[in-house]
Design goal:
The structure holds 3 protein chains of 3 kinds. By secondary structure, chain A is mainly alpha-helical. Chain A has helices at about 5-35, 40-70, 75-90, 100-125, 130-150, 195-215, 215-225, 230-235, 240-260, 270-275, 275-290, 295-310, 320-335, 335-350; strands at about 155, 160-165, 180, 185-190, 265-270.
C-alpha cells in the first residue's frame, strides 16, 4: 500500500518520456513516407538535418539551463569544437581504407569527446562563478573558440602534422602535403554523411541520456544543487563534481550536434552566424520558448521556430523581429509575478471555484 | 567520550569577533540547547560545526575525530546533519525526492549505471523508495510524497527538512530554530517529534531556539551565548533561572 | 612613437568603453540585472545622429542632443515595460528578456535602415593635435573621447555624493527594501538610473561612430559586450571601477591588435575577462557579497 505512490510516480515520468520517444519516432516515420512518396519539397528535405542539429544542441543546453540551473551563452563553442574535431578526423582518414560508416561513427565519438573535454576544462573555472558572470564567461569562451578556429592552420604531410596560427605558408608542408584546416577558410571537402536517419538516432540517444540522467540519483543531486546549493552540500552532495558532470554532458551533446553539422556541408567555417553568440542565443531562445527544463519542448520549439520562417517566406524579413517580441512576451507572461497571479486566477475561474485562500 | 567536544572555538569576520572561546560538551543521546539573544552568534556556531564557515580558533571533535575546518560534505559524512533557520528545501522537487536526495550517500550507484539503467539502478532505487517512505511515515508525510515540497504548509516543510537530515544517517542532528513561525499547537507537536526522533533513532540533538517553552520542555542542558561568548552553561532549569541570563534577554 | 600612439588610442577607446560600462555598472548595482540590451541602445543613438546629420542635414550638436533624448526615453521605456514586471522573478528570466530586447532593437534597426554599412560623419570637428614635431598625431575624436569620459565620471561622482537623487541611488543599490522603508521612491530611482545610463550610451555611441565610422544594426553588440567585460573587470557596481576597467580594456585591445594579432584581439579581450573573473571574481574594485546561511 505504502509503495503504490512511488510506483505510480515512476511510471508517470517514464510514461511521459516514452511519449517523447514515440513522438520522435512517429515524426520520423511520417517524414520518411513523405520523402519516399515525393510529397516533400526539396527545400523541406534540406531542412531535415538542420532541424535535428538544432534539436540536439537545444537538448544539451536545456540540461544545463533547466536541470543544472546555469545559463550558458557559449554552447555554440561546444558545437564548434565537435564540428571541427570530427571534420578534421574525417578529412585525415579520407585516404585510408576505413569503412565510411565506421569512420563516421569514430568521427562522432571523437567530436563528442572533444566537446566534452572543452566542457570539462571550461567548466572547472567557470562553474564557480555566479549566474550572470557565468553567462558572460561562457559567452567569452564561445567567442574565443570561434576566433581561434579562424586563425588555426593545420596541415598534414608525410612527416606528420604541422600547426600554425599565422598563415598557410608557415606550415612548411612538403610537396605531398595537404592543408586540412585553412584558417578562416576552415575545412573543405568533408563528405556529406549526415542523414535525417542519423539525426533522429542522435536525437533519441540524447533524449535517453538526459531522461535517464535526470531520473536517477545523479539527476536528483544536480537538481538539488540548482534548488539550494547550501542545502545540497549539507546532505553531502559533492557540488563541484555534479556541476562539472552535467555541464560536460551538456557540452558533449552540443558537440554531437556539431558533428552532424560538420558532415552536412562540404565547407566548414567558423563564422559569427554559425558558431558565434548569435547561434548560442538562438538555441537559448528554443530552450526558453520550449520551456526551461522541458526537453520535449526544446525539440518542438527548435523545429517550429526553424520551420516557420521557411514556410512563411513572406515573413522572413520579420522573422527575428517576431522572435524577439515573442521571446519578451513569453518571458513576461511566464515569469512575471503579476502575470503568474493573473494566470492562477484565470485558471481558478475556469474551474468554477473561488480563488483559493493562501494559508 | 562525549559525542561532540568543542574547545575554545572562535571566529572573526574582519574586525568583528563573532564567536569567542566557546566550549561545549554534548554526550551521546542528549537533547542540548543553544540559546541567547538575537545576534549572539548561535547560527554562526552551527555554520562552523557544519563546515559552512571555517573557525579562526579552537577545535571541534565529533566522536573523537577532529572535524575542525572541514568542508560541509565531509562533515556530513562524519555524521552531522542540520536544518536551517530559513527552511532550505529543494523546492522544485517532490517531498519524496527531497528525502531521497538525503539518501544520496547512503544508497549510491554510479551515474553511468543510472544512464544505462543497469540492474543496480532498479535495485537501489527500490531500496531508496522504501527507506524514504519509512522516514516520511515517521513524520506522517507519506501521503504527501508526490507533493511539490514548496506546496507543503510551513509546519510540514520543517518536518520534511528534519526527515531529509535524518536520511543522511547522522550521529548528531542540528536544528536551527525549528519552532520558528509555529503556533503553540504546532510547537507542542514538534516537541513530541523531536523527543521521538531522539528515542527512535538513538540521536543526539543540538538545537537553537528562542521559544522558551520548547527549550524548557525538551532540552536537558543548555549553553547560553551572548555577544559570541558563553554566558552560562548547565542544566536547563539552573540556566533559565540564572539572573545573568534573564538580564541578557530582558536587557535587549 | 608607435607605442605611445597605440597607448593613446587605447585610452581613447577605453574612455568610450568606460562611458558605456557606466550604464552597465549602475544598472547592475541598483537593479541587480545585466542589461544585455545596453549595447543596442548605443546603436540606436548612432542611427539617430546619422539620420539627423546625413538625412536631415542637422547640426551635430542638435543631433547629439536628439540622440541623448531618444536613448534616455528608450532606456526608461524598456525598463518600465520589460524589466520592472520581472523585478521579483528569477534573475535568469530578466537576463533572457534583456536578450530579447537586444534582439528587438537590432531587428527594428535592420528593418528601418537595412543591413548595409552606413558611413558615419564624425561629429568632432576639432583638428588633430600634432606633438613631438609632427611624429605623434592625435585625432580630435581621441581627445574629445578622453575629455568626455573624465567630465562624465567626475560629474557622476559629484552627482551621487551631493545630490539627493544620487544618494537615493546609492541607498537602493545597498538595500532596496530598506531604502523604500526610508521613503526613497525606488521606482523613480531605478528609472533615473536607466535614464542616465542610456543617455550616456548615446554619447558613447556618437563618440564610437565618430572614431570608427561604420554603422550597422550590429555595431552596438560587440562594444556592449566588451564594455560589460570592462565593468566586470573593474568591479561591477563600482563607478570608478567602470572607469579603470574601461581604460584598461581599451588599452589591452589596441595593444593586442597592434602587437599580437588583429584577428585575435577580441579573443584576447575575452581572455582577460576570464582571467580576471577567475582570479578575483569581484573585479579590481569590487566588493564581495556574502550569502546568508
Amino acid at each position: 500500500m505504502k509503495n503504490k505512490a512511488n510506483f505510480k510516480k515512476m511510471k508517470k515520468t517514464t510514461k511521459d518520456n516514452f511519449i517523447t520517444y514515440g513522438m520522435v519516432v512517429a515524426v520520423y516515420i511520417i517524414v520518411q513516407v513523405m520523402v519516399m512518396t515525393g510529397s516533400m519539397s526539396s527545400l523541406m528535405q534540406g531542412l531535415l538535418v538542420p532541424l535535428c542539429i538544432y534539436s540536439i544542441v537545444a537538448i544539451g543546453l536545456n540540461l544545463c539551463v533547466g536541470y543544472l540551473g546555469e545559463l550558458s551563452l557559449g554552447h555554440a563553442g561546444f558545437m564548434c569544437a565537435g564540428a571541427f574535431s570530427s571534420a578534421f578526423f574525417t578529412r585525415c582518414m579520407e585516404d585510408s581504407s576505413m569503412n565510411p560508416t565506421l569512420r563516421f561513427v569514430f568521427a562522432l565519438i571523437i567530436g563528442t569527446l572533444v566537446a566534452a573535454l572543452f566542457g570539462f576544462l571550461i567548466g572547472i573555472p567557470v562553474l564557480r562563478l555566479k549566474g550572470d558572470y557565468l553567462a558572460i564567461v561562457t559567452l567569452a569562451f564561445g567567442e574565443i573558440i570561434k576566433n581561434i578556429m579562424n586563425v588555426l592552420y593545420v596541415g598534414k604531410d608525410s612527416a606528420g602534422f604541422h600547426i600554425s596560427m599565422k598563415n598557410k605558408a608557415a606550415l612548411n608542408l612538403a610537396e605531398d602535403g595537404d592543408v586540412i584546416i585553412d584558417g578562416a577558410k576552415g575545412i573543405t571537402g568533408t563528405p556529406h554523411q549526415s542523414t535525417f536517419t542519423i539525426g533522429v538516432i542522435l536525437i533519441l540517444i540524447s533524449l535517453v541520456v538526459v531522461f535517464n540522467l535526470v531520473n536517477s540519483r545523479s539527476g536528483r543531486a544536480i537538481m538539488a544543487i540548482r534548488d539550494n546549493r547550501i542545502a545540497a552540500e549539507s546532505v553531502g552532495i559533492n557540488v563541484t563534481k555534479f556541476k562539472l558532470m552535467s555541464f560536460t554532458i551538456s557540452a558533449a551533446i552540443a558537440g554531437a550536434g556539431g558533428v552532424l553539422y560538420a558532415h552536412n556541408l562540404s565547407t566548414l567555417t567558423a563564422l559569427p552566424a554559425n558558431f558565434g553568440y548569435n547561434m548560442s542565443i538562438m538555441i537559448l531562445v528554443f530552450v526558453v520558448l520550449g520551456g526551461i527544463g522541458n526537453i520535449r519542448g526544446s525539440i518542438i520549439a527548435a523545429v517550429v521556430l526553424t520551420l516557420l520562417p521557411e514556410l512563411l517566406r513572406g515573413l522572413s524579413d520579420y522573422r527575428m523581429l517576431i522572435y524577439s517580441i515573442l521571446l519578451i512576451v513569453l518571458m513576461l507572461f511566464n515569469w512575471a509575478p503579476g502575470a503568474i497571479v493573473f494566470r492562477e486566477r484565470m485558471k481558478q475561474k475556469l474551474k468554477g471555484k473561488k480563488t483559493k485562500e493562501v494559508e | 567520550m562525549a559525542l561532540l567536544e568543542v574547545k575554545n572555538l572562535g571566529i572573526s569576520f574582519g574586525g568583528l569577533r563573532a564567536v569567542d572561546d566557546l566550549n561545549l560538551k554534548i554526550e551521546k543521546g542528549q537533547l542540548y540547547g543553544l540559546i541567547g539573544p538575537n545576534g549572539a552568534g548561535k547560527t554562526t556556531v552551527f555554520n562552523m560545526l557544519t563546515g559552512v564557515y571555517k573557525p579562526t580558533d579552537g577545535s571541534i571533535f565529533l566522536d573523537g575525530e577532529n572535524i575542525t575546518g572541514k568542508k560541509s560534505i565531509e562533515i556530513n559524512k562524519h555524521g552531522i546533519a542540520r536544518t536551517f533557520q530559513n527552511i532550505r528545501l529543494f523546492h522544485q522537487q517532490s517531498v519524496l525526492d527531497n528525502v531521497k536526495i538525503g539518501l544520496h550517500n547512503e544508497k549510491p550507484y554510479s551515474t553511468l549505471s543510472g544512464i544505462l539503467r543497469l540492474p543496480v539502478y532498479y535495485k537501489v532505487e527500490k531500496e531508496m523508495n522504501e527507506r524514504a517512505m519509512e522516514l516520511l511515515e515517521v513524520f506522517d508525510l507519506q501521503n504527501e510524497a508526490e507533493v511539490l515540497a514548496s506546496n507543503l504548509p510551513y509546519g510540514k516543510q520543517r518536518k520534511l527538512e528534519i526527515a531529509r537530515a535524518l536520511a543522511t544517517n547522522p550521529k548528531l542532528l542540528l536544528l536551527d530554530e525549528p519552532a520558528a513561525g509555529m503556533n503553540p499547537n504546532e510547537t507542542a507537536e514538534l516537541m513530541d517529534t523531536i523527543r521521538f526522533v531522539r528515542d527512535k533513532f538513538d540521536m543526539t540533538i543540538l538545537l537553537i531556539e528562542h521559544d522558551m517553552k520548547l527549550v524548557s520542555g525538551i532540552c536537558e542542558e543548555l549553553t547560553v551565548l551572548n555577544f559570541g561568548q558563553e554566558l552560562a552553561q548547565g542544566k536547563t532549569s539552573d540556566v533559565l533561572n540564572n539572573p545573568e541570563v534573564i538580564k541578557a534577554y530582558l536587557g535587549e | 612613437m608607435g607605442f605611445i600612439s597605440y597607448l593613446i588610442n587605447g585610452i581613447s577607446l577605453g574612455s568610450i568603453y568606460a562611458i558605456i560600462a557606466l550604464g552597465y555598472t549602475m544598472v547592475y548595482g541598483i537593479a541587480k540585472m545585466l542589461n544585455f540590451a545596453h549595447g543596442d541602445v548605443i546603436m540606436i543613438g548612432c542611427y539617430v545622429v546619422f539620420t539627423m546629420m546625413s538625412g536631415m542635414g542637422m547640426h551635430p550638436l542638435i543631433s547629439i542632443v536628439a540622440a541623448v533624448v531618444v536613448c534616455t526615453l528608450l532606456g526608461v521605456a524598456i525598463e518600465k515595460v520589460a524589466y520592472k514586471p520581472l523585478r521579483k522573478a528569477a534573475p535568469l528570466a530578466v537576463l533572457i528578456t534583456a536578450i530579447g530586447v537586444s534582439y528587438l532593437l537590432q531587428n527594428i534597426a535592420l528593418l528601418i535602415f537595412g543591413a548595409d554599412t552606413k558611413s558615419f560623419t564624425s561629429v568632432v570637428s576639432i583638428p588633430p593635435i600634432k606633438l613631438a614635431g609632427g611624429e605623434l598625431v592625435i585625432s580630435g575624436v581621441t581627445v574629445v573621447a578622453i575629455v568626455a569620459c573624465i567630465v562624465i565620471m567626475v560629474g557622476l561622482m559629484i552627482f551621487i555624493k551631493k545630490s539627493k537623487a544620487g544618494q537615493a541611488m546609492l541607498a537602493v543599490s545597498e538595500d532596496k527594501d530598506a531604502a523604500q522603508l526610508m521613503g526613497v521612491n525606488v521606482n523613480a530611482t531605478i528609472s533615473l538610473t536607466f535614464a542616465i545610463g542610456s543617455g550616456l550610451a548615446a554619447i558613447a555611441g556618437v563618440l564610437l561612430c565618430s572614431a570608427y565610422p561604420t554603422l550597422t544594426p550590429y555595431t552596438g553588440a560587440m562594444p556592449g559586450i566588451k564594455a560589460f567585460t570592462a565593468a566586470v573587470f573593474g568591479g561591477i557596481g563600482s563607478i570608478p571601477g567602470a572607469f579603470i576597467g574601461g581604460i584598461l580594456l581599451g588599452v589591452i585591445e589596441v595593444l593586442g591588435r597592434a602587437y599580437i594579432s588583429s584577428q585575435l584581439s577580441d579573443a584576447i579581450v575575452f581572455a582577460v575577462l576570464i582571467i580576471v573573473l577567475l582570479v578575483k571574481p569581484t573585479g579590481i574594485l569590487g566588493k564581495a557579497v556574502n550569502e546568508k546561511v
